[in-house]
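Explain my protein.
***
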Amino acid sequence: MNEPVARRSVAEVLVDQLVINGIMQVFCVPGESFLPVLDALRDRNIAITVCRHEGGAAMMAEAAGKATGRPGVCFVTRGPGATNASAGIHIAQQDSTPMIIFVGQVERSVRERGGLSGTRLSRRFRKHDKVGHRAGRRSACG
């Protein structure tokens, strides 16, 4: 008989992948747009360094990536948070430092309407990123 598969949230799957890939620390300015990820991180063996500014968080992630050779990981909120992180993203791109930036986003139904600090991140970071992806639906993963 088949055992039922435990359902996990997208945040749990994301954090599990960070663990599987050897990420030991993340940098962030906590924001409501990625609270489920912060909840999932709480139960894992990943240190969370809370910063006061997204630019500082991104630069710390860049420095960690440069020091360890493994991607530095940073979580920021949409709009101004992502824009504030752009200096650290630029440094990582210029120095070829491994870094991953996760940007919390508004609900799909209100994206690209100009409100709620929404911005077209793919346009904003086109010159600085190696790969940019937008996550799909928020449904649970099996």
Notes: The chain is about 35% helix and 15% strand. The first strand starts at residue 25 and ends at 28.
